Amino acid sequence: MVLSWRLRGLVCGMMGIVGAGCAVQQVEDRIDYERNNVVRIERVLKAGDYGLYTAADINPQVVRHLNAGDRIGFVKKSDGTVEAVAGDYASKLNAKAYWKYYGNR
Question: pLDDT digits over 50-64, tens only?
């Protein structure tokens, strides 16, 4: 289910996201972040493990287990920093990064 623009705006506003680049969608296997691009928050379609990588990583920096409907993506904070988020996990980013779906381990 894709959320309407009005609902996206409401969700983004409630989450305290700053800037016009907010999007809420549902994610399948991967969600990317690059500096100066759209900051995205999505909803997980399938429960399982999701790993956070930067461009230089061979192994994930962190792996989080999420349930269907949990949020995942990248949030731009009011001070201009960007955080990777997955469920209740949040970590500041300084580089290009992505979340990757691994399935259930």
Answer: 999 988 899 999 999
Q: Is 104 helix (H, G, I), strand (E, B) or coil?
A: coil
Token pair, residue 18, equals: 């700053």
Shortest CA distance to 15 belongs to which of 83, 103, 66?
83
- In DSSP terms, 62 is beta-bridged to 52
Beta strands in the chain, from DSSP E residues, in sequence order:
22-27, 30-33, 39-44, 48-54, 62-66, 71-76, 82-86, 89-93, 97-103
Q: What is the pLDDT of residues 15-52, one digit of tens each?
A: 444 443 444 444 457 777 776 666 778 898 889 999 99
C-beta atoms surrounding 50 within 10 Å = 25
CB 53, CB 69: distance < 8 Å: no
Least Cα distance to 35 among 99, 101, 80, 79 occurs for 80
